[in-house]
Amino acid sequence: MLFLTILKVSLKSLSANKLRTLLSMLGIIIGVGAVISMLALGTGAQKQVLSQIQAMGTDMLIVRPGQKGFRGVAQGNQDNLTLQDAESLMKRLPAVSQIAPVVSGSVQIKYFSQNVRSTMTGTAITYFQIRNFEVEKGRSFTESETEAHARVAVIGPLTAENLFGQSDPLEKTIKLNGVNFKVVGILKSKGDQGWFNPDDQVLIPYTTAMAQVLGVEFLREIDLQITPGQDINAAQEQATQILRQNHRTQPGEEDSFNIRNQAETIETASNFSRIFTILLGGIASISLLVGGIGIMNIMLVTVTERTREIGVRKAIGAKKQDILLQFLMESILLSCTGGFIGVLVGVVLALVIGQFTQFPAIIEPLSVILAFSFAGGVGVFFGFYPAQKAASLNPIEALRYE
């Protein structure tokens, strides 16, 4: 019963000066709203980055040539990865389920009067599954076409739009650096990855690319898909030993190639994104502290204004803990009400900002609970000193106060 009475008195006191109460809550509203919206955008950015990396394949090792240089200065990549390396890895590495040799380069693509520049990737049929590419229309090229050096191509949806507009590209003939290729399939869209757009490329058999388009003997990379359940780190170590033997690398010499572990890339990106999200939330939390200082300031003013009222309450029997609880209740009401409004503002703000940026806003219940709980904690922490000051007033001195 006493608690309800104190709650009613606190509500009445706060509603007596609505403008000051609103201004006191403003810092909490801004702080909670900023924390929720920043965490939502940070989480959205994290999930989008991870999905983009995972879209390019998981449980995968990527072998690339090492860099050549002079006196520590890098001067490009070495030409040392061969088809024999790919065959050795496939035969001698039990953890590998599929392997895809890759060559690539920038090519000029023509279809009648349409002329665009795009990325051409020469690879094997296994590349589609390793890299999570799906053919939306038509088909991919086959192993027999690869062995026969066939001039067939699978193009990305953006490349198809740039060359053909709304027309159907299937069975049409395009020119890659002046060489005719028949379009047999169109890839399903993956979206722009930032550093590379998989929707704007042409995939052809690696045999055709090496012999007829690029005129190269060495590979740009070798993609290896590790069988689920196998230790990818152990497979990476075994692949390193196999390639060192193939390249006749002596003990103590540096590797003439690089092996990138896709799982490590995903973990690194995840950790970086998590730190980024925490940083955003930490910066936004400063607003909550500022709001808490504002509440303490207002509560100190309130204690000064109501000194005589405190004296009267004590004179008629109010205990020290009753006065403490009343002013602490007012502080908590300020912060919790501001926190509730801030949650609504943060959710709306996150959704609005998400509409105008490339990162979707993902609001997690945990972030809302943490922001609201922190707002309540701010009310208790910054409200305790004014409440303690009010409870400690001497009733005789308080009654004398003008």
Concise overview:
The protein has 402 residues and is α+β, with helices and mostly antiparallel strands. Helix content is 56%, strand content 19%.
Provide structural commentary.
By secondary structure, the chain is of the alpha+beta class. It is 56% helix and 19% strand. It has 13 helices and twelve strands. The protein has helices at 2-16, 18-55, 83-92, 126-130, 143-147, 157-164, 206-213, 232-246, 262-305, 307-315, 320-356, 365-391, 395-400, and strands at 60-65, 67-70, 73-77, 96-111, 114-123, 135-138, 152-155, 173-176, 179-187, 201-205, 221-226, 257-261. The strands form two sheets. The chain has a six-stranded mixed barrel. Strands 2-3 form a two-stranded antiparallel ribbon. Helix 1 (2-16) crosses helix 11 and helix 2 (18-55) packs antiparallel against helix 9 (262-305). The longest helix is centred in the C-terminal third of the chain and has 44 residues, at 262-305. It is elongated. The two termini are 32 Å apart. 35% of the residues are buried. The model is unreliable at 70-74 (pLDDT under 50).
The chain-level structural class is: alpha+beta
How far is the first residue's CA from the last residue's CA? Answer: 32 Å
> What is the element string, with H for helices and E for strands?
HHEEEHEEHEHEHEEEHEHEHHHHH
Largest sheet: 6 strands, mixed, barrel
Widest beta sheet: strand line-up: 4-5-10-7-9-8
Q: What's the helical proportion of residues?
A: 55-70%
SS element count, helices: 13
Average pLDDT across residues?
81
How many strands? 12
- Portion of residues in beta strands equals 15-25%
- pLDDT < 50 runs, ≥5 residues: 70-74
Overall geometry: elongated
Overall radius of gyration: 33 Å
